[in-house]
Amino acid sequence: MATLEYIRKDTPVHALQASSKMLLTVLSLIISLFALDYVLLGIWIIFLLVWWVIGGIELRRIGIILKILLGTYLFLIILQGFTYRFGNTVLFQLGVLMIGPRNYAAYTLEGFLFGTLIFMRVLAVVFSLPILTMTTPMTKIAAQMGQLKVPYQFTLIFVTGMRFVPLVFQTWGNVMQAQKLRGRDIDKLPITKKATVYTAALTPVLLYLLKLSTTLQTALECRAFGSPATRTYLEETKLRAGDYIAQITTVALAVAILALKFMGYSSLHYVIRV
Amino acid sequence: MSNETIAEIQNLTFTYPDNVQAIKDIRLEVSRGEIIAVMGPNGAGKTTLCRHLTGIIPHIVQGTTAGKAIVCGMDVYEHPVHELAQKISFVTQDPEGQLVNPDVLMEVAFGPENLGLPREEIMRRAKWALQAVGLQGYEARSPMELSGGQKQRLALAAGLSMQPKLLVLDEPTSQLDPIGTTEVFQALVDLKEKYQITTILTTHASEDVPSFADRAIILSEGSIVAQGTPSEVFSQVDLLEKVGVQVPQLATLGHKIAPEKPPLLTIPDSKKQIVSLIESKKLKPTKLNRPKTASSGEVVLECENLTFAYPGFPPVTALRNVNLKVYKGEMIGIIGQNGSGKTTLVKQFLKLLKPTQGKVLFRGKDIAAFTTGQLSTSIGLVLQNPDEQLFTISCREEVEFGLRNLKLPEDEIQRRVDEALGFVGLEKQKEVFPFRLSFGDRRSLTVAAVIAMRPDVIIMDEPTTAQDYLGRHRIARLGKKLNAAGHTVIMITHDMNLVTQYADRSVVMGNGEILLDGPTYEVFTQVETLRRTFIKPPPISVLAKELEPYGVPGDIMTVDSMVESLTGGK
Q1: Same domain, B76 and B205
Q2: B211: closest CA of chain A, how far (Å)
Q3: Residue-range domain boundaries for chain A
Q4: Do A218 and B90 touch (CB under 8 A)?
């Protein structure tokens, strides 16, 4: 969670309205879906990283994200390496597993490259998220969702979710601390014993969550949540010059990438087919 | 106060689904502009009464009910909570679960936003509410970054921003430092004077009640057993002691030295009466023999130039160059305003937090070489919230947990379990599921689990939060008993009466630094320094200072010492 939490800074990206960054996220999703190409996705990822730099998001977080996604990457390259249907160049094989004309025990270069491409697709979306969440206070996101006529109940679920996830982690941490304080060195335990510790910790956490949900319901209703009045949003969502520049640049690049893709551009067509 | 009736409760009785009858035949009429303090021990029915006044019962919490509750002209049974909320604000005692927004400003604006008020009006109310609770300047902070007391103020500000006709507050100051508490009560008086806002609040803060409440109501076992002006109620000392409500120190003093007279509630009145008794030779102040404090001998814990900053952008420095020595056999009270670094300091002793600079030594050895688990066998820390420290299915297993980690033989484990549960008075609840115990008993169970491990040092972090008068003293007496049994005891608390009564030495913290450190009776004479960290001495200390020219020792801190001095121990 800490990787994505809002950090107050004074940067041009922080000054933008949430809509500009939400647009970037949506376009990242579209690019990842429709512009499956090394160069095109690479350009978009670089573009996102420029946002990171301008928004003061430390590039070392790339390492954290890659570490978190390492399992996904390994899964993709293993799966695609053995199953990519246009794979011809065999790098190694674990035996023979013929299904139709294809040996599924053979690991191919094309499969590896395709797995990597799919991973780039994931990165194109994932790298866009910190730009929204780390530079935009949740209040601005909520206000923007309100302006987009998203029902407030959904917005509140989103906002309270973001608020309570760390609270649950905090409670979890406190329960773990309490166990350490009674002589249990959790960090030194083997993984099997750790599982027992975690199971025991679930009881107080679940009871806490139950209590929290009742308190939350009371708190919300006592502050007129559900009132038939039309809700006012304190946050201004009006676009400023910076937003126009950011949005025009983002849309222009996205359109150019999609246009290239639809015109048939492919950087590695001789190796893989998409 | 006006003649307009804000709330009318007629013969209200309520039983929870588990057959606990929480309130019985309550009759109450509240006038506009009144401030009513509802007092009583835990389980007396205070929260249930609040829930009725706000419609939480029956709309969110259900049970069997009889009687009627008309609040702000609305029958609470017939109007949904969001409708009642436009005229009634409710702040519950758990601030954590009430804060749902990402920053302080939005939290305070949330209610008015739901009412669809214009932006300017929302901003005006938010600003005003934050100022009323002393949180101006915190607008952009996340509620998660605030201390417990600050969260409580924020929850109160969120209720205030609704600008209700009736404010219902369930123990709104239970986690606040003394001056923070007084400020909140003063804010209620301001609200009443400026906006005629009526307040009904539950509280254990007896000392403050006379300064803000028009009426005090005492609940016991679900019934109103006394009500009237604070003076009328606090004159019933025997009744209050019987039901377990703290009598203000000055009223107790008055009852002891001149029971036939009206209760003493203010320093000037008390001074006047005592001076006249001294002048008429009915009282003869004498000096007291001070017990020696143990700030010498073997050092068990030591901090050397300890600095700690919580990581963040920017990092928040919580401890600044702290130097402290804890001697074997001491009973120390650590006090200071919310966010002054008290909890951060004790967490360093067990390596739950690692110093940014400096070091902590236990019996002369740097604790960096040990794990928290290893340290816990010598230093026991009871954290603030008992519910985060109980994770087994019976009280017996809860106490066994730590002992098994020590790999003790089975017979020794069982012996210690019996001993520890007996020590806290839970021997009969050995097989009970911990979460079925009362809050006070859950707290005692966490203490039992720690003392069973027989650590040399026992630290209790705000053990009195959300406890009633009897519960607070029970925990403090437990600390004293452990101290008498040879343990070094450190207690963090906002309850100055407890510190002055039980701690031999007091450490006062402010802004991450140690401001004062010494024998408690000396520390509490430093009124100006204490004020800097939002601490005010107990009224009896202030009175003693005022009576110094008449021969009363100026460093008296407890009612018993004052009576002893004035009557020569007779």
Answers
A1: yes
A2: 28
A3: 12-140+238-262, 148-222
A4: yes
